[in-house]
Amino acid sequence: MFGGGQGVLLSSCETERGGKVVWRVFQDSVMLIAVNGGQGGGGGSSRGEELSLQRLLENVWSSMVLVLGQDELASVRNVERLKRDLRSCFSLIDQLLEEKQEGIMGNLTHCADCLVPPNPTLLQEAVENFTQAADSEFGCLMVHGRIAVATEKWWRLAPQEVVLLSALMRSLSASGSASCDYPVFLPHGSPTVAHRLLRFQLLPGADVCVLCGPTPSLLRAETTLVGRFWLPLADTLRDCLAVGERCLPGSVSLRPDVLALLLINRETRRSVSCVRASSDSSVPSRARCWELLKLFYIFSTTRYFSQEETLCVSPEEKPQRSSCEDFAPGFSHQPLQCYLVTEECKCYTLQTPQHQLFLLTPLSVPTFALRTVATHTLSAITAATGF
Amino acid sequence: MAPVPQPGAAVVADWHRDADSREFFSRILHKKRRRKFSLLESPVMPPHLAVDTVHYKVFISGKSGVGKTALAARLAGRSIPSMHYETTGIETTVVYWPVKLRESGRVLFFRLQLWDCGENALRRFDHLLPSCKEQLDAVLFLFSFTDRTSFDDLSNQIAKWSGPSDRLVKLVVGTKYDLFMHSDVTEREVTRFQEEWGSPVLRTGGEVSDGLGDVAALLNGLAENLWHQDCVAASQHSQQATGTLI
Ligand SMILES: Nc1nc2c(ncn2[C@@H]2O[C@H](COP(=O)(O)OP(=O)(O)O)[C@@H](O)[C@H]2O)c(=O)[nH]1
Ligand SMILES: [Mg+2]
């Protein structure tokens, strides 16, 4: 703040013990400050840590807008009232801080976590018809907290909104309720006018939602539409649920030497990720694999690959922000692949114009073979699913 | 308000303890815990035991933090959230509960859909309350034994819901009864309120146990009142019908 008064932009600092403090002012009104304890979260680098903290700040701000709307946050009339109203955001914010659910990468990547159903056509049709019947164009089917199918308009929401709505759906789904009618503001598309997010739990782990206006009422949508469109598809939904946390249908066979993977489609801003179950004690545990996958993503995107810029930076802020990027060690060329060998596993990233694949393998895989494993895996997935 | 039946007059109280109820309660249990029902699921009975299901919509009313979301979770047999997060929209919970009618011995599945909406959300968004009121069958008015003001405000709350068409079951539920050591509301006050109000105050609190014994009194009480209301309405309706015939 002192620096700001002198026209200096300071965006983060570090404590002696390696803790990191990052902050940002949103809408000239609210300053959010994120502090971490020093270890971890950054792929071992300060820039990596900054990336995850910056992401956290953006996500927290967007959650606040999602629940309260921008007007209430941008022009604060009564601080006490705002403090009380902010409590409504705590559930989402805590979820962002805790990152409890394994296998959810979207908060970090700002790509939608997806699950590829074995039979998408039927489900796609059902989501479209259901959405239309609910007077909406925005509809989405979530399975195990990931998007299985969605309407075209849903995919045209800002990537960050898709990620945030997914997070909200996960928390509503975890509460075990059968249906919801939640007022939501869209941080990019509609920050000052609330829409209604209707959500219906079709089967445990399978939820459908639509974003709509004043009609239909929750009761009417539930009694007249849910059974009509989804009862005939109960078995298809069960097949889809059976895909489980693998997120890829049985038609994709992964090589046994793939421990974990994260595949991002750079055009559609969607991702699938999975960790393979293994009883082998020489490889890291499932939980550790998820952690390593995140760290490796941060490592490679901050050092070598650009993450697609979805940072929700306002136009006037942009020149300032990009000026701090200039300090980063620049490459004269664009890397296409990178690898990393650690004490726990080996990691490999492959980038094509359309995809980024992040892969973990056991130490037993020879380093020279990593590239083959990665190219095979990428083509196995894209050939079988068209992801 | 229509006279409320004596507890246990219309439905068999504590039926879940009787041997002949096991066939029915087993349909709402899974591994000794309550089964959770999503929208496409319902209890399935073998053909020779097929029973009717009656549907009701129930709204849970009360100030923020009184325990609305916890009550919905408890009645469905889910564990109670330890943190208090505001419910920032409408959330509904589906509860199936088998009931045996005393007179006829007939068994029915009650499908109760509990509607829970945070007070702040109701205040901030005008469309939520009408949505909660649409085709409503019952309101549960909650007060907390640890919050005096929530008890004092009951008459106000109830008054807001008395309209010309009075086909609405209204029950009062005291929450956090397990924290009686810190109770702000005395037994005498509750007794006096029951006498004035002409209907019992139900109580809940404590850990969710097997999901039957801890909720049976409340669910049977609610079912009984809903059934009674339907019977009264049906008899009025048939009287009117015969009236016009003559
Ligand atoms: N001890 C105890 N705590 C309860 C009970 N019901 C709710 N709570 C706690 O009270 C807080 C608020 O409950 P909640 O249901 O979220 O309130 P709501 O705002 O009315 O939905 C939570 O921390 C609950 O754990 C109860 O019966 N006994
Ligand atoms: Mg609540």
Automatic annotation (TrEMBL), chain A:
Keywords: Cytoplasm, Cytoskeleton. Residues 258-383 form the FUZ/MON1/HPS1 third Longin domain. GO terms for cellular component: cytoskeleton. Residues 136-230 form the FUZ/MON1/HPS1 second Longin domain. One of its GO terms (biological process) is non-motile cilium assembly. It is found in: Cytoplasm, Cytoskeleton. PANTHER family: INTRACELLULAR TRAFFIC PROTEIN-RELATED, PROTEIN FUZZY HOMOLOG. This is Fuzzy planar cell polarity protein. It comes from Myripristis murdjan.
UniProtKB/TrEMBL annotation, chain B:
The keyword Protein biosynthesis does not apply. GO terms for biological process: cell projection organization; exocytosis; protein transport. It comes from the Eukaryota. It holds the Pfam family Ras. One of its GO terms (molecular function) is GTPase activity. PROSITE patterns: RAB (PS51419). Keywords: Cell projection, Cilium, Cilium biogenesis/degradation, Cytoplasm, Cytoskeleton, Exocytosis, GTP-binding, Nucleotide-binding, Protein transport, Transport. It is found in: Cytoplasm, Cytoskeleton, Cilium basal body. Belongs to the small GTPase superfamily. Rab family. PANTHER family: CILIOGENESIS AND PLANAR POLARITY EFFECTOR 2. This is Ciliogenesis and planar polarity effector 2.
